[in-house]
Amino acid sequence: MNQQEAAGDVQRNRLAGEKSPYLLQHAENPVHWYPWGDEAFQKALQEDKPIFLSIGYSTCHWCHVMARECFRDHEVARELNKSFIPVKVDREERPDVDHIYMSVCQMITGSGGWPLTVIATPDKKPFFAGTYFPKVSRFGLPGLLNILQVISEAWEGDRKTLLDQADKIYRAILEGRHERDAEPGLVTPKETTDYDSLLEKGFAEFSKSFDEDAGGFGGAPKFPLPHNLMFLMAYWKRTGNKRALDMAERTMKGAYSGGVYDHLGFGFFRYATDSKWLVPHFEKMLYDNAMMLRAVTELYQATKKDIYKDIAFEIVSFVKSEMVSSQGGFYSAIDAESQGEEGKFYVWTPNEVTSLLGEGDGKTFCDRYGIGTDGRFRGGSVPHLSRIAANPDAPDRMEFVLEAREPAAERLRVKMLAERDKRVRPTTDDKVLTSWNSLMISAMAKTSYATGDDRCLEMAEACAAFILKNLFRGGTLYARYRLGDAAHSGTLCDYAYFVWGLMDLYQVTYKVEYLKHAWDLAAKMVELFWDDSISGFYLTEPGRQDLIIRPRETYDGAIPSGHSVAIMNLLRIFHLGGPEDYESMAISAIDALARDVARNPIGYGYSLCAVNYVSGGALDIQVDADREDPTAEAMLNYVKSLYLPGAQVIFSAHRAFLGKEDPPKMPPRPTITVCQGKTCGAPVTSIQDLQKVLMTAR
């Protein structure tokens, strides 16, 4: 080590050549960071040093805090550079690496989050894990500097203890992949699942944990989890149980009316730090807005309430103005902080409002959006539309203002937004991720399907074209694009989400090329990630030498897991005429997962959607007509106006194009055949007859 390295002088380190905005944020740290890869691993083996692994993402507030306190600090850098091989990972580029070590952190500490801090042997086996640490001990947290010094001394003087701990954790990781004991009454020894019981248990658990006062499930922090709302709506459609729809509606109302929604610039923040949705964590993530767009669109279909369509269009407006690249891809996220302070861009005081709008309009705005002198966030207020109910019998129940924006209110919003735009903006992470972009493709396609909005369809098709041109090369789907560079082989999420998006594009455009791409990518998905021995999908393809295990992820967290989406893809493709073994694979995957779903239904909301689909929820609509036929178009527009969660359209001619059937002979009149589950009704040739058929569809 030269004198300059020992002093920890600031210089551009090995991250300077990376494309990830998160890694580039650390390129001038005095820490001698390595990106994840062979160079770092070889260095650790050669110098016989443990790996210090730090995982985060560019818009993470506490990642910024730890970077300022620790990674820009020369004293911390000297200790890291002397005794460790420091490695930085962008969790959004490498969700496989993040998943493995986040599981370790949760196993060791009982919780997780970012920044993720892990210390591992030179062969990448972890023996220490945590999240945020300050430089020196405070707030009950040990200081990173002290942790590094203690582990450095132990590595030199008591290494066997650390290696034994690493082996113990590694064995626990491997054992965590084994199947768990069955839940009595749900899974028989023959591994066949009682789907109705599983769905009922799921609904019961959601009902039990529902926050009657503010909506949502559980306490703070509170996430909207839109795929759970999708399950509740599908359960309502299946059973007629109105409480399921009411829970979905109240949750959406709470999230939208609260501060977790940006009432000036639109779009959802990541989650609420409180149980009433009033104070958000201020990141804006592409995936959150994609899934909320889909959920609110489905609420519009289910209820016919125009306010939900208005919310959908607001999200679309936000995405179009702030998150679309000139090439058609969607950016990943907008930071939580600006000028080193979380939420500074978004909060207001009454004085700021009245100085801009005047006393009269200022008071109107403050009253409408809850801007008060008792600001809930660092002395300022986050605009929101929710109120504590005046009913003394329900003192904690929230009341939500859900109404179309009147011209006067809209005038004030526009004026306030223009003023806010003069502030220093949070940074935007402009990398394009295949997985998250695919979620937005699906959501935009769904919104266009339900509303006829052309903006949504144009953005969805442009993004799909971008991915096919820039991220699909040589038969391989890549995970990240930035500055002309496509990198990192796609995980299950990239393939599964993109298939989802392409299939939804077919449903709104009836362009067979989208179906063809989906068919081919689904086959590749099965080839790379399916494993008969576990009756399920792995997150990565086999043989990855840079990972200590081959990870799996079945839990539906902030967004549906790639596993649950892949299962649904197999089912949907089978019902459109795809390979017959896709259905048996999907059913075996659901059966293998049933015990976990039964234990924790709230963690498997989209898997429950797949259970509903396979248990009679599929609704296949075969069209025997030319795509441009006006009668067929009118009939399909009627289908689009309905909430039918399991509905899929397939033109019989397209099945022939895909090689599944002989070219059909067109009937004299446009004809539609509807199949619920695996039972088909008589063909119909008019909207009136179609209405009768779909009246009881679920």
Shape: globular
> What is the count of helical runs?
25
Structural class by helix and strand composition: alpha+beta
Number of strands: 24
Low-pLDDT stretches are: 1-10, 178-190
Rg, alpha carbons:
26 Å
Main β sheet profile: 5 strands, mixed
What fraction of the residues are assigned to beta strands by DSSP?
Answer: 5-15%
Give the strand order of the largest sheet, numbering strands 1, 2, ... along the chain. Answer: 1-3-2-4-5
Average pLDDT works out at: 92
Report how far the terminal alpha carbons are from each other.
69 Å
Helix content: 40-55%
Explained architecture:
The protein contains 25 helices and 24 strands. Residues 1-10 and 178-190 have low confidence and may be disordered. It is α+β, with helices and mostly antiparallel strands and 698 residues long. Helix 12 (286-303) runs parallel beside helix 16, helix 14 runs antiparallel to helix 15 and helix 18 packs across helix 20 (562-575). The strands form eight sheets. It has a five-stranded mixed β-sheet, sandwiched between helices. Strand 4 (116-120) and strand 5 form a beta hairpin.
